[in-house]
Write a structure and sequence with these properties.
transmembrane; 2 helices; 0% strand; transmembrane helix; 89% helix; mainly alpha
Length: 66
């Protein structure tokens, strides 16, 4: 029974965490876009935010046991 519940909940939890993380970092990137004037700085900040989003999703998913 535990495996069935895990198999049903794992995709839902992953989807929720991924969507929530993406929305959070998208809002942050939009806010920072107005604050940073240079294109090169925007690219660097965007890359750092993307890496942070990916890492945080992986870490939260691993810590939650999925």
């Amino acid at each position: 029974m535990e495996k069935v519940v895990h198999d049903l909940l794992a995709p839902i939890v992953r989807s929720f965490i991924s969507d929530w993380g993406f929305a959070l970092f998208q809002k942050l990137a939009t806010w920072l876009d107005a604050k940073i004037p240079s294109r090169a700085a925007k690219v660097v900040i965007g890359l750092l935010l993307g890496l942070t989003a990916i890492a945080s999703i992986v870490i939260v998913t691993a810590l939650s046991g999925f």
